[in-house]
């Protein structure tokens, strides 16, 4: 598509025309595809869920134990495994569904915490990815009691 415009013609001199060629067409946002990996949505959801008061940890006891061991091994996954632990996402072209497994703090309303987690996760994922979150399923796998020890393995060396 070529747009010919008269730039700066003086005193009736129409012989000075400049040709400007416009490339592409339409909105730049519509020129191509953006795909978002499941892991990206899982990280966003995991971090959003952890931000909610009353959530002690993500994942089942077994996955947290293995994760704590894996975090201590060089190259074992570290921050990536922490961010996605307890989160599973299925990402489509325009929608996503999430399954979360959480541990709540003793004494809090599980229904309130689950509602807050759901709201925070939906807001974060939709805002950051533009995907529609069609469901957030939450499984409460444990309750953190005040006298429970942290589930990290002992260090042999100090």
Major pleated sheet: 4 strands, mixed
Question: What does the average pLDDT come to?
Answer: 80
Fraction of residues in helices?
25-40%
How do the helices and strands follow one another from N- to C-terminus? EEHEHHEEHE
Q: Can you characterise this structure?
A:
- The protein has helices at 38-50, 61-72, 78-84, 110-129, and strands spanning 2-5, 18-21, 55-58, 87-91, 95-105, 132-144.
- By secondary structure, it is of the alpha+beta class.
- The strands form two sheets. Strands 3, 4, 5 and 6 form a four-stranded mixed sheet that branches.
How would the blueprint of this fold be written?
Blueprint: E1 2-5, E2 18-21, H1 38-50, E3 55-58, H2 61-72, H3 78-84, E4 87-91, E5 95-105, H4 110-129, E6 132-144
Helix pairs in contact: 1-3, 1-4, 2-3
Briefly characterize the structure.
With 158 residues, the protein is α+β, with helices and mostly antiparallel strands.
């Amino acid at each position: 598509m070529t747009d010919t415009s008269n730039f700066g013609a003086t005193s009736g001199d129409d012989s000075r025309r400049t040709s400007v060629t416009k490339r592409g067409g339409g909105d730049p946002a519509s020129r191509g595809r953006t795909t978002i990996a499941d892991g990206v949505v899982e990280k966003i959801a995991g971090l959003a869920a952890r931000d909610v008061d009353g959530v002690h940890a993500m994942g089942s006891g077994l996955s947290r134990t293995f994760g704590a061991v894996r975090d201590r091994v060089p190259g074992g996954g570290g921050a990536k495994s922490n961010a996605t632990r307890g989160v599973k996402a299925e990402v489509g072209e325009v929608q996503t569904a999430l399954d979360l497994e959480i541990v709540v703090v003793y004494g809090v309303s599980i229904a309130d915490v689950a509602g807050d987690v759901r709201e925070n996760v939906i807001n974060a994922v939709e805002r950051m990815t533009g995907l529609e979150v069609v469901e957030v399923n939450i499984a409460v796998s444990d309750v953190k009691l005040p006298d429970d020890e942290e589930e990290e393995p002992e260090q042999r060396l100090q």
